[in-house]
Amino acid sequence: PARGRNVPVLLGVFTLSVCLINVGLLATQFEPQYMRLTQPPVEEALPLLKEEEELSEEHGPVPPPPPPLLRIGMPVADVVHVCIATDLIEVDGVFVVVNSTLFHAAEGTTFFFHLIAPAELHVRLVGLQTIFPRANFGIFAMAANGVDFKIRSRLQALRVGPGAGRSAGTGRDAAGTHPMAEPALFRWAVAHLPTLFPKLRRLVWLHTDTLVQADLLALWQLPMDGKPLAAVSDCTLAVESYVNVSLISSFTAQNEVPRGCSFDMGVLMFDLVQWNTLDISSRVEYWIRLYSRMPPLMGQLYEDALDPRIPFNLALHDAYLPLDRRWNLFSLNRRAYSHHELQIWSEAWNKSSVADPFRGSLQPVRALEEPGEGRILHFSGSSEPWESNEQRVTPRASSQCMANGVLARCEELWQSYAGYPQKEVVDGGWRSRQQVAHR
Fold first, then answer.
1. Radius of gyration of the chain (CA)
2. Burial of 359 by CB count in 10 Å (0-12 exposed, 13-18 middle, 19+ buried)?
3. CA-to-CA distance for 331 and 379, rounded, in angstroms?
4. In sequence order, what are the residues at sequence separation of 6 or more whose Cβ sits closer than 8 angstroms to the Cβ of residue 420?
5. Residue-wise pLDDT tens for the chain (439 aa)?
6. Are 432 and 424 in contact (CB under 8 A)?
């Protein structure tokens, strides 16, 4: 009789086991695709199965093997996606970035340019598709998923300064009626690219003051080894030089305080899947909120709160892939080096066996590397390369760039890609110039 009473219990345990096994099988069958792309990195690519050419008499043609799983950090296609954000009325910078990119692109490479700009600039940017028919363009605002409102609210809190707390994050001006107009608004789009482009895996971010002098496909195909971001290190500007190290040390372990080289934001390559998996956007938001909610008596957490470079470096310190410095030769709109900067650059030139024709002089700022397999000139500094000499705040010595073994003014290299067609493309849009755009 006791054995008979145990029969229902055993049947219940058996039924529960079968259900759990079925649930596990279903979970495996409907596993999201992004999970298959974010497995831990491996040292070598997974071997491909060889196709069977012989036919089986009993079962017919042998089906082709399944596609190999992608290694983490590898691009999914040869379509190079480039993102450029601008709110400047003058669109010369966007034109030069596109023109120089396509001019140096290998035959057969497809480019898709994602342009983030305010609505009033869309009519001017749409003409790029006519000028450069071999490329694809998408022009976007930042209204997707509340990105525009989120950035405005964060910038308002940063402008109020330490102690702003939650009250500053309303996204409205002092009158409380209209969204505040922020010149730095589109600079912060870089922190929300996964939200703006949820279907992309990899994306190259370029500032409008860059000049591409190599095939971007070489950069695009670099393995990122599981890192969410790839950038060029800037050892002339250490992280501890613009953050309050003592304040961070008060709530963080000493070995976790960011120190050492920062990275420049002019040229970035994102693995958007890894970015989402590691939730990097929340890390950037953490440092922004921490700055705003820090009690004023404790001081500022970092300088220049409206610059996204600082929270980016704090969130991604030691978590990004360092690129070869040729992919971002920055500071080309500077008058001169500081002694510390010149020492850093001289060490880099000596390491690459590049001779300095100016023999250690602080002037001019110079890019001595030939284009080779990769080079992007970044005209960061006090002015932009498309401003006339009269518009610059202070006169400056022109930076020098090596081109085919000869030094030339870097500004002249930029201007050689700034030629427009000789007819108007859009009424009130492109200006006529004598030069013809590179094709």
1. 27
2. exposed
3. 6
4. 95, 131, 430, 431, 432, 433, 435, 437
5. 555 556 666 666 566 565 545 534 433 443 333 333 333 343 333 443 444 444 445 555 556 655 545 455 555 567 899 999 988 888 889 999 999 999 999 888 899 999 999 888 898 899 898 899 989 999 988 776 677 777 777 777 777 766 555 544 444 443 333 333 455 678 888 888 888 888 899 999 999 999 999 999 999 999 998 999 999 999 988 888 888 887 887 777 666 777 889 999 999 999 999 999 999 988 888 888 887 777 776 777 777 777 888 889 988 988 899 999 999 999 898 888 989 989 999 998 998 888 899 988 998 999 988 877 678 999 987 767 766 555 554 445 578 998 888 888 888 888 889 875 433 333 333 333 334 344 3
6. yes
Sheet holding 400-403, edge to edge: 366-367, 400-403, 406-409
Query: How far apart (Å, rounded) are the C-alpha atoms in residues 359 and 376?
Result: 24
Cβ(151)–Cβ(281) below 8 Å: no
Q: Which residue has the tokens 């298959």?
A: 36
Q: Which residue has the tokens 């009690």?
A: 295
Angle between helices 280-293 and 147-160 (to 10 degrees): 30
Q: Cβ distance 211 to 417 under 8 Å?
A: yes
Residue 134 burial (CB count, 10 A) = 10
Q: At a CB cut-off of 8 Å and minimum separation 6, what does 64 contact?
A: 51
Q: How many CA atoms within 13 Å lie on the side-chain side of 419?
A: 13
How far is residue 73's CA from residue 201's CA, in Å, rounded to a whole number?
9
State the helix-helix crossing angle for 309-316 and 280-293, rounded to 10 degrees. 120
What residues have CB less than 8 Å from 379, skipping those under 6 apart? 209, 210, 211, 332, 333, 385, 410, 411, 414
Structure tokens at 180: 């505040």
